[in-house]
Amino acid sequence: MKIESFIPYHVPFEETLVGVVSSVLFKELELMNYSRTHLSKIIEKPQYGYTASASREPIGTKYVRITDIQAGKIDWNSVPYCRCAHPEKYLLGENDILFARTGGTTGKSFIVKGKIPRSVFASYLIRIKPKKGVTPDFLYWFFQTKQYWSQIKTEKIGSAQPNVNGKKLSSLEIFVPGIEVQEAIAKYLNAYRNKVYGKSVELPPIFEEMEEKIGKIERLLVSIEEAGRLRAGATKDLEELFFAKLDRVVNSAEGQQIELRRIVKIRSGKGLKSSDRDDNGKYGVYGSNGIVGFHSEYIVEHPTIVIGRKGSTGKLTVTDEPCWPIDTTYYVVPLVPLDMKYLYYVLLEKKLDELPTRSPKPGIRSTDIYTINVNFVNNIKDQRRIVANLDCLKENVDELKKLQDETEEEIKELISSILDRAFNAQL
Questions:
Q1: Domain membership flag for residue 205
Q2: Residue 406 contacts by C-beta under 8 Å, 6 or more apart in sequence?
Q3: Which of 168, 189, 210 delimits the end of a domain?
Q4: What is the C-alpha to C-alpha distance for residues 78 and 31, in angstroms, rounded to an integer?
Q5: Fewest beta carbons within 10 Å, which of 272, 288, 364, 372?
Q6: Could you give the CA distance from residue 215 to residue 217 in angstroms, rounded to a whole number?
Q7: Model pTM greater than 0.85?
Q8: What gap in Å lies between CA 186 and CA 172, rounded to an integer?
Q9: Around 71, how many Cα atoms within 13 Å sit in the side-chain half-sphere?
Q10: What pairing do the DSSP bridges indicate for beta strands 73-74 and 109-111?
């Protein structure tokens, strides 16, 4: 389950815990009145990576991309290669720190350690190197803190595409103690991460009274995570119960096995840019993940089911009102008497998001949907009885999912609150 707060992308609970503890330690530097400085004073000039095409064939040096950095590690065996006539400028070395400078993980960092194959780094990454007198691991741990992410988020505001460049990185502020304190913080956090991931390690000493504060934070976060996990487990169990009943009710009814093409037509939606929509209109505009806006006109006047074609592939949205499905969707046109909610349950049981497709492109084809075999109940009254049988349990599942989403938001707020209390010496 997701409980991240200040980190703007999903990370494991362990990384959230380590990030919170590192934030508290770096806050302590501020409280101890160490000097604040810009990164530009303690790092070499940031360097952008090399632009090339990646290849699985060993045509040159290894070519590290953003996507090769997963869970704080690089699987060097899976890193592709590239042609680089003069790689010396871009070769990775021990303690280089890499940053994602654009995309969904903008600001994510990685410190290069261990045995490093001859490798260069890609153009969507930035490399920094600490100057003399700065411990690389200390600098890396700063990049895991709330203090760092708060500054990165501020820098990203106003950008259509999230990004961080070398100039922005250099302008970030950090409290810098002497080398002995840097090394103590780095040593503690390296050991703490190992401990969090289950390794048997002894934590080195850290600032006076900090062990007690960190212990409180850890116990609070673990309790929050456990509560969230229990609710997520309850949601999953109820969802599995619903799909078991859905399968039983839909497929045991007295009907006939037919291909879907015999009861509906599948039609493609029509593009409608957000700038062309009339937000005061009363007709829903539907994308692959549900309603995305409103318009004063519609292209479908009958009840229908909107099916995600791209993006949220196979996602189903049923509507009784006239609507405008856009071009990332399909919608159904009935060829026989059909209760749309009944057809929704029939298609839901087929799990269209898991439907195999013969297309090399992402998404789902109408031909893949047409060939689905369904147990079709012809009588409209029987269709409605099936709907009534399933609606109550589906409502319970949806309500629990809603509670789960609310729980995740509450957990994020709790983590933020714990950090604030720790920062203000209230723990």
A1: no
A2: none
A3: 189
A4: 44
A5: 372
A6: 5
A7: no
A8: 20
A9: 5
A10: unpaired
Whether residues 182 and 262 fall in one domain: no
DSSP 164-211: --HHHHHH-EEE---HHHHHHHHHHHHHHHHHHTT---PPPP-STTHH
Q: Which pair of structure tokens corresponds to residue 189?
A: 């956090």
Domain count within the chain: 2
Which two tokens mark 67?
A: 């996507």
Residues 277 and 137 in one domain: no
Residue 335: CATH number of its domain: 3.90.220.20
CB atoms within 10 A of CB 63: 25
Q: Map residue 133 onto helix, strand or coil.
A: coil
In a domain, 226, yes or no: no
Dihedral over alpha carbons 159, 121, 73, 165 (to 10 degrees) = -20
Q: Is 254 helix (H, G, I), strand (E, B) or coil?
A: coil
CB atoms within 10 A of CB 300: 22
Give a yes or no: residue 36 inside a domain: yes
Same domain, 60 and 142: yes
Closest CA to 170 of 113, 123, 111, 130: 130
Q: Give the DSSP H or E segment for 46.
A: none
Residues 148 and 65 both lie in one domain: yes
Say whether both 184 and 266 belong to one domain.
no
Give the type of residue at 72.
G
Tens-of-pLDDT digits for all 427 residues of the chain? 344 457 666 777 788 888 888 998 998 898 888 999 999 999 999 999 999 999 999 999 999 998 898 877 899 999 999 999 999 999 999 999 999 998 878 899 999 999 999 999 999 999 999 999 999 999 999 999 989 998 987 654 444 456 789 999 999 999 999 999 999 999 999 999 999 888 988 888 887 777 777 887 778 777 777 766 776 677 777 778 888 888 998 998 899 999 999 999 999 999 999 999 999 999 999 999 999 999 999 999 999 999 999 888 999 999 999 999 999 999 999 999 999 999 999 999 999 988 776 655 668 899 989 999 999 999 999 999 999 989 888 887 788 777 766 766 666 666 667 666 666 555 5
Q: Residue 364: give the domain boundaries.
A: 256-376
Report the C-alpha gap between 175 and 190 in whole angstroms.
19
The verdict on residue 270 lying in a domain is yes
